Amino acid sequence: MNRYRWFVPRDPFLNEFSRLQQQMARIVDHFSPGEGGPRTMGVFPAVNVYEDSDNYFLNAEIPGIEQKDLEITAVYDSITLKGERKIEDAEDVNYHRRERSGGKFSRVVTLGDRIDPEKVEASLKNGVLTVKMAKAEESKPKQITIKANE
Questions:
Q1: Is 60 exceeded by the pLDDT of residue 33?
Q2: Taking the C-alpha atoms of 125, 131, 132 and 134 in order, what is their torsion angle to the nearest 10 degrees?
Q3: How does strand 55-61 pair with strand 70-75?
Q4: What value does the mean pLDDT take over residues 9-21?
């Protein structure tokens, strides 16, 4: 039978040193990538951009943001999302964790080709913003007819 002896530092300096070591480990762990990716907040909002033959689509995760706090602008090859997430602070409480952050954000997404800014539509459902951007006519693929030399 194996016996394990736990080391419990009795010296106040060692206790303080152990506490400092644990805090440093938590700080390094907080800013280091974990198994599922970085633990720190990444670029906000997270977006997916994809296209079909006629349109670009952008999906952005923006939970907790009201429609009135969003601004979308489109220019010939990019779209800008601006907004503000407002977090109400509880008063007279001590936070144990405070991972949700608030504040203003701005994100510019550059597309592969030109879009028609007059044909941009946006909708918001369940915290997901969907923007549909029609490609400009000159950006759409054109089928080329091959002339046969006989």
A1: no
A2: 160
A3: unpaired
A4: 74
